[in-house]
Design brief:
The protein is mainly α. The chain is 41% helix and 0% strand. The chain has five helices and no strands. Helix 2 crosses helix 4. The protein is elongated and about 55 Å long. The two termini are 24 Å apart. The mean pLDDT is 81.
């Protein structure tokens, strides 16, 4: 079922305007508000801003495959009583 639905999928094209680099990641970090509650991962912006400088590089250069995704809804079949 997945393969047949995937072959007809047409998603948003991956354009250059969606690309980001170390400079953009660092700029976003510096513009984020401080003192906010941690997320489910227990990280705050303070962790990112005050962490080792290599952290920005690691976040900016996530492997290409992790940057792209798509969702395929698979409706459940009705259960007859």
């Amino acid at each position: 079922m997945f393969r047949t639905r995937r072959q007809d999928y047409v998603g948003t094209p991956f354009l250059d305007k969606y690309m980001f680099d170390v400079e953009l990641v660092e700029t976003v970090f510096l513009q984020m508000k401080r003192g906010k509650a941690a997320g489910l991962d227990e990280l705050t912006i303070e962790h990112l801003v005050n962490g080792h400088p290599v952290l920005v590089v690691i976040i900016a250069y996530v492997p290409y495959g992790f940057r792209l995704s798509y969702t395929v809804p698979l409706p459940k079949e009705e259960v007859k009583s």
